[in-house]
Amino acid sequence: MTSQSQQGPHKLQDILGHTFSDEALLVQALRHASTTDQRTKSNERLEFLGDRVLGIVMAETLYTQFLAEEEGELARRFAGLTSRDAVARVADAINLMDFARTQAVDAETSARSHASVAADTMEAVLGALYLDGGLDIARTFIQRHWEALIGEDLSPPKDAKTALQEWAQARGLGLPSYNIVTREGPDHAPTFTIRVTVKNYDAHDGCGSSRRAAEQEAAAAMLAVLESKQ
After folding, report:
1. Which backbone phi and psi does 100 adopt, to 5 degrees?
2. What is the pLDDT of residues 169-180, one digit of tens each?
3. pLDDT above 80 for 145
4. Phi, psi (5° rounding) for residue 82?
5. Active site residue 123
6. Annotated active-site residue in 47, 51, 132, 215
7. Which three-class secondary structure string do you get for 51-78?
8. Which of 22, 50, 67, 91 would staple 122 via disulfide (CB 3.0–4.6 Å)?
9. CA-CA distance, 215 to 120, in Å (whole number)?
């Protein structure tokens, strides 16, 4: 059983600011892999492309906007603005999942996997925008809808894994170690539990719909404890 929006692609095109010459591209961008036996007919290939489109546009935008920042500072901004959570926030802001075609699952699984699926769908739509309208069309959408995120924090963000790594190395403890504790749920909506360890300190776990997200959660949990003891 699949879940498909009651709203048609024409309304979404109005939101995206682009009328597709090849509307099939947009339809495919909204088709999650769980709804078809042919993965090449899902949005995964467009997601792959859209991730790269977002990357080049965001790199260009940060390069021209933050002229006084060094490479490392720009890289931290880039990581935050192209992260799953940031992309999912843009998807939610335009109600993208109202238009997506996904596998119907229970409420708990849906809530757990929402950010991951929303981010993947948003990247697929960026890929479709690029193929149908070119880089300028994709750039216009990205710069408009990421503007608020860029302006939220003018100091370069540092993700939890990077912060924990720097904390540990500054104390001569070596690199944190991340290991999978469990992987549960269906292939299209998995949940990972990751354990992070730092020499001489208690381990901490984190959960997420991807290994990367779970690692960030684990690092954040450990940092919170370490900072509370300072």
Report:
1. -80, 155
2. 989 999 999 999
3. yes
4. -110, 10
5. yes
6. 51
7. HHHHHHHHHHHHHHHCCCCCHHHHHHHH
8. 91
9. 19
Catalytic residue among 47, 123, 215, 217: 123
179 bridge partner residues: 195
Instruction: Give the three-class secondary structure for 188.
Output: coil
CA 31 to chain centre: 17
pLDDT in tens, 80-136: 899 888 999 999 999 999 998 876 543 444 455 688 889 999 999 999 999 999 999
End-to-end CA distance of the chain: 52
Pick the CATH number of 160-228 from 1.20.1260.10, 2.40.30.30, 3.30.70.1140, 3.30.160.20: 3.30.160.20
Question: Residue written as tokens 């906007």?
Answer: 65
Six token digits for residue 98: 């109202």
- Identify whether the C-beta of residue 28 lies closer than 8 Å to the C-beta of residue 131: no
- Asked about 152 being catalytic, the answer comes back as no
Instruction: Determine how many CB atoms are found less than 10 A away from the CB of residue 208.
Output: 21
CA distance 86 to 88: 5
Half-sphere exposure of 71 (CA within 13 A, CB side): 0
What kind and span of H or E run contains 140? helix 135-152
pLDDT of residue 40: 84
Domain with CATH 1.10.1520.10 in the chain: 2-152
